[in-house]
Specification:
single chain, 270 residues, alpha/beta, Rossmann fold, 5-stranded mixed beta barrel, Purine nucleoside phosphorylase, Purine_phosphorylase, purine-nucleoside phosphorylase activity, EC 2.4.2.1, glycosyltransferase
Amino acid sequence: MIKYITETVDYLKDKGFDAPEIGIILGTGLGQLINDIEIIKEVSYNHIPNFPTATVEFHKGKLIYGKLAGKKIVVMQGRFHVYEGYSLQDVTYPVRIMEKLGITTLLVSNAAGAINLNFKKAELMLIEDHINLQGSSPLAFNGVEQLGERFTDMSAPYDAAINLAFKSIAAKHNITLHQGVYASVVGPQLETRAEYRMLKILGADAVGMSTVPEIIVANHLKLKVAAVSVLTDECDPDNLEPVDIGDIIGNAAKAEPNMITLFKELIKTL
C-alpha cells in the first residue's frame, strides 16, 4: 500500500495539490459546498492512480483542491462505500492520501436515517460517537503498523474542540444541531423494522452506510476529525413507511444550506 500511496500523492502534487490544511468528505446530496470554494485544481477519480471510482449515480467523482475561508482545502466530491463492492481499505484510501498531502483536520458529512424519534427530517446531527456494524475494520490488514499504530485508541474519536465550535456556530445561526451516536451498516438496502428496533436498543441515534471507516483511519493517522449527519428520513419501526431515494436526496438538499454554514464558519476558526 505504501507504494500505491506514494504514486498517488506524487501524481496529485504534480497536479498542483499543494499542502492542504483541511480535508472534507462530502456525502449524499451535499455537493453544493463546492460553489463556495475558490477552486485551484480538480481531478476526476478515474484519472488518479490507484484511486477507486465512485459508482453511485448521485455521488460525483472528483478530488478538488482550493481555498475556503482563506484555508487550503482538499475536498472529496463523492465518497466510496463497502456496498459498491469496495474493501474497507479502498473506502479509506483517500483519507490516507489527504493526510500525506498535508491535512491535519478532516471534516465529514453524510446522510443518515433518524433512529432517535426526537430528530426530524432535514435536521442535522453532530456525531459524538459511533457504532461500527460494517463487520470489519479498515485497519485489519497485514502491514498496517507501517502506516500507524495498529491498536488505535478510539476512546474519543471525534475532536471535542471542533464539536464545541460546531455547537457554538449552530446556536449563533439558529441551526438545529442534535448530538448523538451514528451507527454505520453495510447497506445498500435500508433497515427492517426489527433492525431499527435493534439499533435503538444498541444506543444509536442515526444510521447510515459510511463515515465510520474514514473516522477510524483518521484516528489511525492522528488527524483531528469531526462529522455531521443530515437526517434524511425518520426510522419509526411502529409507523414505518417505504423510503424513496428521491426523498432522501430531497431532504439532504433542504438541509444543505445549514450544513454549508456550519462548515464555512468552522473553517474560519481552524
